[in-house]
Amino acid sequence: MPELPEVEALKDFLTENLVGHEVVRVLPVAISVLKTYDPPVGAFEGSEVVAVHRHGKFLDIEGDSGLRFITHLARAGWLHWKDRLPDGPPHPGKGPLALRVALETGAGFDLTEAGTQKKLAVYIVRDPREVPGIARLGPDPLAADFDEARLAALLGDERRQLKGALRDQSLIAGVGNAYSDEILHAARMSPFKLAASLTPEEVHGLYEALRTTLSEAVERSHGLAAGRLKSEKKSGLRVHGRTGEPCPVCGDTIREVSFSDSSLQYCPTCQTGGKPLADRRMSRLLK
């Protein structure tokens, strides 16, 4: 799933390639992708792009018409830029293509989604806050006003485990499964530690890990074309998706806890005092 660093890089890429150009066609291929119907998706056609914004994991393309084209790529979605789109309209079918956006230059992008869940979403709205997922977003962890005191306040009453708290978009915007693993590894904290139990020193360590991990990932992705962002994300991860590999910090074997629809990875030596976590939901440290 694209998370804050990748969506930030996509925002920068689209700013360079969309701003100043006219959107001449918005062609839905999978009807499931459209989450709003008034204004209709075709109302964005004829808009000149004036800016591209990011809200958490949402991309927001602003047109001079006063309308916004907003998309959330969900778990299996992606944006594919094409300097020259294929001739003729796309045909509905069983492929991954969900929607195509064409510019007056002949360039544009496709939104695709692999798998069968079909969670990729497109909204045409006048105000980003009309999108429910944006309206309930928590603060952006890379914003200038997101300081250590604010993180402490957010976690102070959280009776959830840190892994779940970091992934909650209404608490902190933009962090997902992969970067929550990376942040907790950098902070040397168990994913199952209760958020409200952190000492001031631990809050400081988590804050530094949060800002550093995300900032470094954004920096690695800066300037990359859309097609290279997935491989860059994977290559920069230390523990997430690396079950069975040695920890790059201590050399211990990276372990995994699996859930019904996701998994987390961690280093026992760095994060749990050398003890492996039981591989079941609501896990506790093995005795």
Helix content: 25-40%
What is the number of helical segments per DSSP (H or I, 4+ residues)?
A: 8
Q: How much is the average pLDDT? A: 93
Question: How many E-type strands?
Answer: 10
Describe this structure in words.
- Helix content is 27%, strand content 20%.
- It contains eight helices and ten strands.
- The strands form three sheets. The chain has a four-stranded antiparallel β-sheet with strand order 1-6-7-5, with no helix packed on it.
- It is elongated.
- The two termini are 34 Å apart.
Provide the fold topology.
Blueprint: H1 4-18, E1 23-28, E2 49-55, E3 58-63, E4 68-72, E5 77-82, E6 97-103, E7 108-113, E8 121-125, H2 132-135, H3 148-155, H4 162-167, H5 177-187, H6 200-221, H7 229-236, E9 255-258, E10 263-266, H8 268-271
Helix pairs in contact: 1-6, 5-6
Give me a quick take on this structure.
With 287 residues, this protein is α+β, with helices and mostly antiparallel strands. The chain has helices at residues 4-18, 132-135, 148-155, 162-167, 177-187, 200-221, 229-236, 268-271, and strands spanning 23-28, 49-55, 58-63, 68-72, 77-82, 97-103, 108-113, 121-125, 255-258, 263-266.
Brief descriptors of the model:
287 residues, alpha+beta, four-stranded antiparallel β-sheet, 8 helices, disordered C terminus
